[in-house]
Amino acid sequence: MDAVSQFKQALGNYPTGVTVVTANDPQGNPIGMTVNSFASVSIDPLLILWSIDRNAYHFDAFTQAKTFNVNILAADQSDVCMLFASRVEDRFGKCEWHNGTNGVAVLKNVASQLECNVYNTVDAGDHIILIGEVTSIVNEEKEPLLYHKRLFGKIPDAFYQQS
What we know:
single chain; alpha+beta; Pnp Oxidase, Chain A; 7-stranded antiparallel beta sheet; 3-stranded antiparallel beta sheet; 4 helices; oxidoreductase; Flavin reductase family protein
């Protein structure tokens, strides 16, 4: 097995949460994509990051946007994940959403939602890392959608039990 295949296998064995990152294109239209390369960076200031492939469908629009939102999907939103992972033209016509306080789309029924201003971008090989300063947070009492070995799931109840 070559190094790229081993790398993909190793990272596929690392369970992650699933997000849909949204922004506006230069014409003001909402854009969004499924992202699992999301992480916290800093508490002071509140910073998060996500990365985008240079070959991504809306690469230019995302890297030119000054604001974006991170929608952390709830366990029952695998359909939303797949919608925003596809190349369907009118993704926003196929889901419920509204504009956040920053004018960028917020998906309904998500586990959490973070509104961000672009803080910095970092060149990272075939990706660009976008670092956002969080300006608004909405949390709901919902379990997150998880992704592991190309499958979706949720945290088992046993995980929450204390010994």
